[in-house]
Amino acid sequence: MSANEPLDGLWYLAALSAEVKPGAMLRRILFGDPIVLGRTKASVVFALRDVCPHRAAPLSAGRLCEIAGETAVECPYHAWAFRASDGKCAAVPALHSEEARDPSTISTKRFALHEANGLIWIHHGDGAPETAPPDIGLSEGFRPKSATIVDAAGPFDEAVIGLVDPAHTPTVHKQWWWREGAARRDKVKSYEPTPLGFKMLAHRPSTNTRIYKFIGGAPTTEIEFRLPALRLEHIRNDRRRILGLTAMTPAEPQMTRIAHVIFWDFAVLDLIRPVAQSMADDFLAQDGAILSLQNENLKRGEHRPLYFGEADEPAKWYLRLKRAWQERRESGFKNPLAPASLRWRT
Fold this sequence. Notes:
The chain has helices at 156-164, 169-172, 211-215, 267-271, 273-298, 313-326, 328-331; strands at 10-16, 24-30, 33-39, 45-49, 63-67, 70-74, 81-83, 89-91, 113-116, 119-124, 146-153, 186-194, 197-203, 220-226, 230-236, 241-250, 255-264, 340-345. With 346 residues, the chain is an alpha+beta fold. 29% of the residues are buried.
């Protein structure tokens, strides 16, 4: 596995539930491979490799049909049909009635999916999933209130490192409601390892970040990173909570799909939902823009990153976690990190 290939055996965000309508299909390039996501009339989601084994036509350009009581995807070229449940071929209409051939010996790859809280997760890798699907810590009733998606160019590792990098925030993210013009201050944050990553322990938010003042009360924030590329920021006061979820999924080669989804149960935020959406759009667009600028240099030759100071430790932690996961088949996965405190100015 090369340095920037996505880790296998883990779950990635494939789509928002709202993007996959009942009785419809959606073509998406994930991990460099075409995949068709669909939802049966019974609202069950499925994912198949979007390549007909016959002549390589995209199955997503076909239609959903019913064969022997099961939902199948019919190819637009020769109407071969593949069961949504397992990817096996259920019909080859051109076969003569006297041809003794079994279509079910032909199949297209089926991907394991998990749907919860308005999110659809896809397992990357062959064989059965090695880990449970992501649990984002919300009850079933929570659904996304805001969702922003950006496609960014550049190596996947660099995109993920941006998730855990605390030092870029005052430079890249400048809005009046965030911290524009606020002075940098010394910070000390405590971290501890988790089963698939690490988290910054719950703490009072920075006083030079204005958005937290709007929440009221005495909020705390806890920030967690999990392999392969998931960042969870839980903000709570004594009655309410907000979850900001950022997930990265490899798309076309050297392209990363970045999704930022926000959940909340603050009624007042429902009233300003369009404003919150616009704020999230601006914030993520800034991340996408700096990654694209960075890629203008990275795509022209090899560059060895320079890590300097404690603010860069989370980037090194990610790379250590990634190596440990890649070596798991020999000795099993063991989180190599230890509890730590980091210092920086932001």
